[in-house]
Every structure is written in structure tokens, then in C-alpha cells.
Amino acid sequence: MIKEYLSKMKGGAKSPPGVGLTDMLWSWVGAVSGVGICGYLSSKYFEPKDLTLLIGSFGASAVLVYAAIKSPLAQPRNLIGGHVIAGIIGVACYKLFGGTWIGGALASSLAIVAMLLTKTLHPPAGATALIAVIGGKKIHDLGFLYPFIPAGLGALILLVIALLVNNLSKNRRYPEYWF
């Protein structure tokens, strides 16, 4: 029984194929543009008003929406819905449990369940929920604005850039579907 269990850990599928230089370039252009625009707008317009438009989970979202564009986890519904839903759950967990380990564990795990229920699974959004709990005063002071600014609006900016950049190449198409 243990041997059978451990044998599952060997894997069995082939490694995915490599990515060509052109796709690497388009992925870079998208990521530097999307994350860069969020960062610029954050520093210029949001941070002077004690807001932010840039959270760590957007780095992981950039990987999906600019480099893994065919993944179901990278589609618009998942990107926007995942971040907003996880943000709401994260703030609720922070309000109930403070910045504790249980608040963080519940925020991420409940966000996963909610995303699965709503078909909006987006792995970086697990970090969005966790950031709502373990983030600093600036994040905590946002309260229930956090799911919408920065999480929702930042994800929307990443989406707009993904639509523009990913469709410039004749060999790339984004999104695969909207809903």
C-alpha cells in the first residue's frame, strides 16, 4: 500500500515542450508592461492617497496571463474573479482572526474553495487572500476596499495589457474564452 502510494510521486507525463524566443519576448513585453503600469500608477496616483495598486500576487498572475496564456487558470474570468473573491475572503478572515496564522491559513484555503465553487481558480489569488491577512498596516487599512483596489483594478489592468500584447503576434491568441 505504501509502495503504491509512493509510486504516484514518480510522475509519468512528459515534460512540456520548450518555448521559443519569440514567445519569451512577448511574455516579457506583457509582464514588464502590465506590472510596470500597475507600479507606475501606484506610485504616482495611489500611494499619495494611502492606497496601492501593486501587490505581490500580481507577479504570479503575470506569469499566467503573459506566458501561460492557454492555461484555464490564466483566462479573464479566473484572473479577475479569483483576485476579487480571494480578496473579500482574505479581508473577512483578517477582520475575524487578525494577522494570525489561523487567519492566513483560513484565508488561503477558503479562497481556494470559493474559487473552485465559482470556476475562477487562479493560483496567485491564494496569495491575494494571504496578503490581506499578513500584509502591513497599509493593506489592513484598506479593509473591504482591498478586493477592489488593488486586487480587482490591478488584475483588470493586467488583463487589458494581456489582451493588447498577447494578440499582437500572429501566433498568439488571448483569451481562450471569457466565461
Task: List the main descriptive attributes of the protein structure presented here.
about 0% strand, flat
Strand fraction:
under 5%
Number of domains: 1
Oligomer status: single chain
Q: Structural class, from secondary structure content? A: mainly alpha
**Count of runs of 4 or more consecutive helical residues:** 8
C-alpha Rg, in Å? 18 Å
Shape: flat
Reading the helices and strands in chain order gives HHHHHHHH
**Main sheet, how many strands, which sense, barrel?**
none
By DSSP, the count of extended strands is 0
Low-confidence stretches: none
Mean pLDDT reading:
97
Q: How far from one another are the termini?
A: 42 Å
Percentage of helical residues?
A: 55-70%
Describe the model.
The chain contains 8 helices and no strands. By secondary structure, it is mainly α. The chain has one domain. The longest helix has 26 residues, at 21-46. The mean pLDDT is 97.
Task: Provide a brief overview of the structure.
The protein contains eight helices and no strands. By secondary structure, it is mainly α.
Topology:
Blueprint: H1 2-7, H2 21-46, H3 57-67, H4 76-97, H5 101-118, H6 124-134, H7 137-142, H8 147-166
